[in-house]
Amino acid sequence: MRTHATAQLTGTRDHQCDATAVFTDSRSGARAYVLLDGVGDNERVHQWARQAARRLARTAARRGDAREGLRRVYNAYASENGGYGPKAAAVVAVAVPGKPLTIAWCGDSRAYLVLDGMVQRLTSDHNNRRVFGGSRHRITSCLGAKETDEQVRYHWGHDAIESMTHPAGNVRLLLASDGAYEPQEDAGRKLAHLLTGTPREAARRFAATAVDEALAAERRTQKPGSPLHADNATVLVADLTG
Question: Are 93 and 173 in contact (CB under 8 A)?
Answer without folding.
Answer: yes
